[in-house]
Structure formats: C-alpha cells, structure tokens
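Continuing from the previous page...

OK, I double-checked the sequence for Sulfur carrier protein FdhD against my notes and this is the correct one:
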Amino acid sequence: MTVGIEKCNVHKFRHGQLQPLQEDTVAIERPVALIYNGVSHVVMMATPKDLNYFAIGFSLTENIIESVNEIYGIDIIDGEQGIEVHIELSSRRFMQLKEKRRNLTGRTGCGICGSQQIEQVCQFIPPLALSDKIQLSDFHQSLNYLTQVQMVGGQTGCTHAAVWLDLNGNFIAGFEDVGRHVALDKLLGYRAELQQKLNQNIKGIILVSSRASYEMVQKTARCGVEILFAVSAATSMAIEQAKQSQLTLVGFFRGTQGVIYSNGERIVE
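Thanks. Re-ran it with the corrected sequence; updated structure tokens here:
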C-alpha cells in the first residue's frame, strides 16, 4: 500500500442517486511535532512520509540552521496522537533558537500562523545572484512531473507537490504533502542534503502545484534558489518579496505559457 493513505467507508451520490456504502481512499494527515534538543518548537499537519527531509527543509527555511552540518541527528517516533521528529542541533544553533523561539501551530493553509510579531513574518533576505538562465521551451513537460511524484495525490486528489528541475528542464526530485509548505520544505531538505553529499551547489528551478504565496517565495529564496514556478497565481506580498530578493517568480505556469511577476531576465527567450 502507498505510504500516506488509508481506507474509509463512504456513501457517494452521482446524478442525484445515493449509492451503497463503499470503500474509498483518503490521504493521511497527522500532527508532526518538530523537537529540537528535547524542546518542542512547532507542530505542523503533514503527510507522514519523508519527514527527515521535512525536518531539514523546515530548519533551513525557518532560519534555524544555515547548513545541514548543524544537524547532528534526526529520530522519528510514531505515537498514537502524532509523530515526534527529534532533531539534534549544534549547541550554538540551539542557543540561538532558544533566544528567538516562538510557539506556533501550523496549518495546511498557512505557513506562518501563530507568528507573534510582524518582524517574524517580514524578514530580510539578501538578494539572490542573477546567475541562472533558462529557456521556457525546455520546460514544456514539467507539469507531468508534478503528477509523477503525487502517489498519494493520485489516489486521493488531496496533496500538493513540489519538484526540482535542472536548468534544462530535467527532473531531479519531487515530494508531495497535504500541505503545500510542507511539500516545499521536504524538497528543499532533500536538495540541501544532496548538496552536502556532493559538496556543490545544485542549480535548478522549483515548480509547485499551488499558488505562490509570500512564505513559498521566502522559503525558496532563503535556500538560494533563483527561480520559482507556480501552477496558480502569486499574491501581492509574494511578488514584493520576489522583487526584493531578486527571485524570478512565474505564476499560472502551464508548460508553454505563464505570467512572469519578477526578474524575467533569467528567462532568455
């Protein structure tokens, strides 16, 4: 069975007719607590797979760490009420985390719910380099990759996806989750771990199956990715953040068409 799904009994009605009770497939959503050096930091609702990459990606995109090397270990404990992901940080990083620690509960619809101060949301990100160049014609098959990585979504219609493509449009990796932010964190965590193993910066773009909201842009830019494609629209704050961080933001991406909101100079066509 695919990890991340379960069965339930439902009644379906079609063309005004109620059908007999039958078995259906739904995506699993569970509370996932990220615990740093024994101290619970955040609880997010997520699909219970690829949680090691989620832990790394969240730690990077929330500026808890700057490098994967600052994580010494990750242990995942599955309990009755939820899943605990224990992350062992370096002493220096944990001390910094305690100083700025916030207590929030994440939801699948909003990645910054519970932030206590405006400053926690509106954070400055140094402008990205303008080094990457792409041709849109190389990405005409990209939407197929979103479907390819949605094993749970394909059976339930209930997940978002984030995929990593090289600058020529070739697929590298992709992840899904009931939460769009969590799917992106998983992908960024995977990319960071791969870069550490290869000891090099991996060029490419990110494509997400959702809208491009402020926090999606912020997470992408914070990890040094220069180009973000979104299947849906971009919000005003997302566009503002993309311009400030010099990220190329494209919305309503359909493989052969889209809307360029910022820094279109990376698209050579």
